[in-house]
Amino acid sequence: MTDPTSPTTPEDCARCWDARYEGATAIPEPALVLRQWPHLLPDGGTALDLACGLGGNALWLAERGFRVSAWDLSPIAIARLREAARLRGLQLDAQVRDLAALPPTPESFDLILVAHFLDRTLAPSIAAALRPDGLLFYQTFVRECRGDRGPSNPAYRLARNELISLFPDLTIRVYQAEGPLAASAAGLGDLALMVAQRA
């Protein structure tokens, strides 16, 4: 996962994230990559919030008419998301799922959102899970950064331009990684953001 101290087994990892989410009191706002380029969203269809956590992105997409699946290893996160969706009157499919063991199936989503999650071995499955013309919205932490948010272990942060190289068969529509040049208030100094499309 994105945390450098994450345990190595899925069960231990789920307990680690459960402990983190147990104390969470609010659903996070949607990812910057969604808010930055909402005009690139497809006109509805199926969407996957992969490693969804508490599901701020899943709820945001469901509010915009997508048929949303949201997957995470943490039972607590998924329970919180289901309750949040119920309170908002939204329909979505939230599942506890080990992504390494059960990646998305090929050509199953029109949109996939990944935020603050990095498992390089899943990149081919993520790309293949997009339908033709499907879009990948991805943001996570980079090594070359301004600030100290995110994991301390560089293995869980992207190298320079790595996000682009992880998805060589997709067409890059937008990419932003300002690193140490970012304005301090912009929130971009520790992130890479990308929207890419399958042919």
What would a concise description of this structure say?
By secondary structure, the chain is α/β, with parallel strands linked by helices. It contains six helices and seven strands; from the N terminus they run ααβαβαββαβαββ.
Layout of helices and strands, plus pairs?
Blueprint: H1 10-22, H2 32-36, E1 46-50, H3 56-63, E2 67-72, H4 75-88, E3 92-96, E4 109-115, H5 123-129, E5 130-141, H6 162-166, E6 171-176, E7 191-197
Parallel strand pairs: 1-2, 1-4, 2-3, 4-5
Antiparallel strand pairs: 5-7, 6-7
- pLDDT under 50 segments (min length 5)? 1-6
- Into how many domains do the coordinates divide? 1
CATH topology: Rossmann fold
Number of strands: 7
Q: Kindly state the mean pLDDT as a whole number?
A: 89
For the record, the CATH architecture stands as 3-Layer(aba) Sandwich
* CATH uppermost class: Alpha Beta
| Secondary-structure element order, N to C | HHEHEHEEHEHEE
Please report which band the strand proportion falls in: under 5%, 5-15%, 15-25%, 25-35%, 35-45% or over 45%: 15-25%
Quaternary organisation of the protein chains: single chain
CATH superfamily: Vaccinia Virus protein VP39
Strand order across the biggest sheet? 3-2-1-4-5-7-6
Termini Cα gap: 29 Å
**What does the radius of gyration come to?**
16 Å
* Outline type: globular
* Main sheet overview: 7 strands, mixed
Name the helicity range.
25-40%
> What is the count of DSSP helices, taking H or I runs of 4+ residues?
6
Structural class: alpha/beta
EC number: 2.1.-.-
InterPro entries: Methyltransf_25, SAM-dependent_MTases_sf
Keywords: Methyltransferase, S-adenosyl-L-methionine, Transferase
Enzyme class: transferase
